[in-house]
Every structure is written in structure tokens, then in C-alpha cells.
User: Which sequence fits this backbone?
């Protein structure tokens, strides 16, 4: 099935259809990161209105699935973060969504509010196209010597390490980079997590050993990093930070200058109200446990990417079945429907493997009195894993009707430049666009030769080792054993 996906043709770059502006709105077209942006004057339309407008044009061309990005929604997320997490500097996780417009808006935010986290060589190249290397956090979980050499060549500011071996290699091959030790916090707190990333990191005893070795070898360890599950109880952050304080104090005792704590990811973009409670607990914990001289950073992805994008798909097939087959409840009478749509798990709905739970609704609003039926949404591939949504309740739909999937910006788009990507339609309000482009806040333009947002440019170095080079040969089995163990535990 994976081969079918790889053989899909690359879709043409999307452009917003300028000939039929939404009723009551003046529409102009601007460009950002080599992508066309629809800018609406007057009242900015809702995301659903824009989705319906694009869907009407797609119906004329064959009803391909597509994304719509709402720049106003991204700005709302940025505003909420800047108001609630004043002390925490975000390093946006490019693995979550490396969309060129999203990344350019974050990179060009005033006062350099956003930095970037890169997890591999390809994302590191993307980050370098956006910001200077001292604003990049390199958190490659397979930190080979080749990866470290490349990070040193481009002068990456900070690297995350997880073991004594990582420390020794970093000192040897990236001696100028600052280092953060990642600890496995969820394991330390005896909390189960479905998020594989929360299981990366060393134990607290291993972290103490690394601190001692770093002191003896004059390694540039400056702090501690950890990841929390997005569904973890917010009160656990106080326990986590209290345990991190012990490691920070231990580092100071052995002669290191410990000044940075990375809170990792785990900031859900869908639960906006819960974020207020979480931010209060984090802020209180930081203020009560640490002096103002300690810098706090984090690596959010979903919080900014998820709410800004909606995905639209069409129903391409349907059949009815007994309701109890869908609900697994023998007491459910009546019938329901199984729908097949034109996008699946091998495309945008691969986000389900990253703990996302897409939820759909009809794009065209229907009266509330319409009867709801249990439904299962399948992707276009006829296999047991291609499921977009296992169970929902919808009015009876017809083939060709559009479904909209809210908050689909996280882990739903490829970032390697080779995997086919659905078209993305961008829109903004004229007032917000003009404010960002005012003389007091000029937009940083991208050099047309930089290759950002296109296929131009040279290939970034591979993360894999060159086994033909005797000097760089390295036994990678410990990394692969650890990855296999983590994935095995997940399933």
C-alpha cells in the first residue's frame, strides 16, 4: 500500500481562485514564501466560508482534497501563547508541519519570538533557510557522528543529547554547540504515555552521570530537556520541574553553568481552554522553583499548526450496514453508513499515528432536525488500516458531498519535498496583512534563489552514515534497538 502512495503524481502548487470573491468581500492576491495568499478586505470570512468557496471551484476540476490555511487563526494562537506563556520561548517543531507560509510567518514574527526545532538533516536545512543557526534547536534522536559534524559545520546553536555516548560525540564533533540533556520524564513520574517521543531520554541517574562527565571534560551542558504527554494531568508539571531543579542544582555543584530548561512539546492545539489552566500551573511552578535568570524554552508544534488548517475531502463511495456493526453495541437498532473518501491513512490521515484524532462534519451546514446515523469513514485504499474516523454520527450523505476536517494542521503534511502533497489555499484579512507589512514592521522577504517553498536547491546531507568511510563507521545498533523497543511498547 505504501508503494501506491509513493507513485502518486505531485500536485500543482495551489493558487486561490481570484475570479469569484466571497460575497461582500473585496479580494486581492498577495505573495508570501512563494505562495499566493487571498487577502480579504472588510470582514474576514470564516474558515468554513473559504472552504466552501474553494470546494465550489474544485467541483469544476474533479473534486480533489485540499487544505485551507487561516492566517487569522494562526495569529490567534500566537496571541494566546504570548499572553499566557511570557517566560517560555517557543522553538517551533518543524516535524509537525513545515508549511512554507506557516514557517515564514513564525520566523518573521516581531522580536524574534519564534525559533525552530529540527529533528533531522532535511529539517535542519529548512530551519537554516528561516533563521540564523543560533536560533535552532537540533533534537535528532539518532545523533550519529555525521549528524553532529553537519550541525557543527552550520554552527547550530543548541543540541539535545540523551546518553554518555552522545555527550562524548558532541564534544568531539560539535564542540561549539551548547548541550541539553533529555531525560525520560514520563517514566520517572510512572505515567503511561502513547506518545513515543515522551519515552525518549535517559534516566535521572544517567543524567547525573552525564553531568559529572561533562564537568570533567568541560562539555558545554547548559540545561535539561524533557517531554510531557499532551494528555498528562497539568499538575504533573510541578513535579516534573521540581525534579529538574534537582538536576540543575547537581550540574551547578559539579561546576557547570546550568541556565536553560526545555519543556518539550505536549501543548495541544485543540484544547484551547485547557491551555489556560496548564499555563497557570507552569508559570506558578517556574516562578516558585527557579530564579529569573533561568531561561525556559519549549518545542510546540500542534498548538500553532493544528488550528490553522482545515482539510476538505469528498465522499467517493458509500454503503449501508447495521448500526450495531459500527457502534459495537448489540442494543443499537437501525442502520448506519460506511463512507469512503478521497484521502486516507497513507496521506493526510497518517496524523492518526501521531496521536491525532481527526473529526469530520458536512461542509454544507444542515438543519439540526436532520436524523443522525452512525458512520465510519474509510480512506481510498481497501485495507483494514485505512480508516480516517472509526465512528461518528452524520446525516445521510450522498456521493460527491464534501466533508470538512477541523484542526488538521499537525502531522498531516509531508516535509521531505518528495512525497506528494495536497494543495493548500491560504487566506488573511487585509487589516492584519497591512499591519504586518507596515513600515514599522516590515516583512522579511525571501531571496528568490533560496529555494524555500520550492524544489530548488541542493539535497541536504543524509542522516545515515557513509559506511564506505572507515573513519566514520559507527555501530548504530543501540539506536535501532532503542527505537524498536519504544515502538514495540507503543503497540
Assistant:
Amino acid at each position: 500500500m505504501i508503494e501506491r502512495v509513493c507513485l502518486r503524481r505531485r500536485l500543482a502548487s495551489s493558487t486561490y481562485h481570484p475570479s469569484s470573491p466571497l460575497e461582500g468581500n473585496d479580494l486581492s492576491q498577495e505573495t508570501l514564501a512563494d505562495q499566493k495568499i487571498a487577502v480579504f478586505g472588510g470582514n474576514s470570512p470564516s474558515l468554513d466560508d473559504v472552504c466552501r468557496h474553494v470546494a465550489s471551484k474544485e467541483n469544476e476540476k474533479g473534486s480533489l482534497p485540499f487544505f485551507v490555511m487561516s492566517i487569522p487563526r494562526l495569529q490567534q494562537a500566537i496571541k494566546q501563547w504570548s499572553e499566557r506563556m511570557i517566560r517560555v520561548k517557543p522553538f517551533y517543531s518543524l516535524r509537525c508541519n513545515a508549511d512554507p507560509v506557516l514557517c515564514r510567518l513564525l520566523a518573521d514574527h516581531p522580536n524574534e519570538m519564534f525559533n525552530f526545532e529540527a529533528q533531522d538533516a532535511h529539517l535542519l536545512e529548512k530551519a537554516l533557510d528561516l533563521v540564523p543557526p543560533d536560533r535552532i534547536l537540533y533534537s535528532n534522536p539518532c545523533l550519529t557522528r555525521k549528524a553532529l559534524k553537519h550541525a557543527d559545520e552550520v554552527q547550530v546553536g543548541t543540541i539535545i543529547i540523551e546518553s554518555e555516548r552522545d555527550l562524548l560525540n558532541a564534544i568531539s564533533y560539535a564542540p561549539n554547540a551548547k548541550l541539553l540533556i533529555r531525560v525520560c520524564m514520563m517514566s520517572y513520574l510512572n505515567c503511561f504515555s502513547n506518545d513515543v517521543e515522551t519515552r525518549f531520554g535517559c534516566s535521572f541517574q544517567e543524567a547525573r552521570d552525564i553531568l559529572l562527565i561533562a564537568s570533567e571534560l568541560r562539555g558545554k551542558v547548559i540545561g535539561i530537556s524533557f517531554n510531557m504527554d499532551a494528555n498528562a494531568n497539568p499538575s504533573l508539571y510541578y513535579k516534573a520541574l521540581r525534579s529538574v531543579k534537582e538536576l540543575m542544582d547537581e550540574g551547578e555543584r559539579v561546576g557547570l553553568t546550568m541556565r536553560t530548561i526545555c519543556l518539550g512539546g505536549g501543548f495541544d492545539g485543540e484544547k484551547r481552554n485547557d491551555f489556560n489552566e496548564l499555563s497557570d500551573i507552569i508559570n506558578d511552578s517556574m516562578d516558585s522553583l527557579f530564579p529569573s535568570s533561568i531561561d525556559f524554552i519549549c518545542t510546540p508544534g500542534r498548538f500553532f499548526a493544528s488550528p490553522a488548517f482545515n482539510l476538505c475531502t469528498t465522499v467517493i463511495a458509500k454503503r449501508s450496514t447495521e448500526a450495531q456493526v459500527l457502534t459495537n453495541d448489540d442494543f443499537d437498532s437501525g442502520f448506519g453508513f460506511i463512507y469512503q473518501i478521497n484521502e486516507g491513512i497513507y496521506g493526510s490521515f497518517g496524523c492518526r499515528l501521531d496521536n491525532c484524532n481527526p473529526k469530520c462534519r458536512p461542509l454544507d451546514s444542515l438543519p439540526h432536525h436532520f436524523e443522525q446515523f452512525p458512520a465510519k469513514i474509510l480512506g481510498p485504499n481497501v485495507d483494514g488500516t485505512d480508516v480516517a474516523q472509526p465512528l461518528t454520527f452524520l446525516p445521510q450523505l450522498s456521493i460527491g458531498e464534501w466533508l470538512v476536517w477541523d484542526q488538521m494542521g499537525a502531522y498531516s503534511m509531508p516535509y521531505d519535498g518528495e512525497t506528494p502533497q495536497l494543495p493548500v489555499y491560504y487566506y488573511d484579512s487585509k487589516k492584519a496583512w497591512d499591519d504586518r507589512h507596515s513600515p514599522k514592521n516590515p516583512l522579511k522577504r525571501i531571496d528568490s534563489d533560496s529555494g524555500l517553498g520550492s524544489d530548488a536547491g541542493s539535497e541536504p546531507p543524509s542522516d545515515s552514515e557513509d559506511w564506505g568511510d572507515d573513519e566514520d563507521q559507527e555501530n548504530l545498533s543501540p539506536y535501532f534497538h532503542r527505537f524498536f523497543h519504544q515502538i514495540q511498547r507503543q503497540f
Observations:
- The first helix runs from residue 2 to 6.
- The chain has a mean pLDDT of 84.
- Residues 140-298+461-490 form a domain with the TIM Barrel fold (CATH 3.20.20.10).
- The first strand starts at residue 27 and ends at 32.
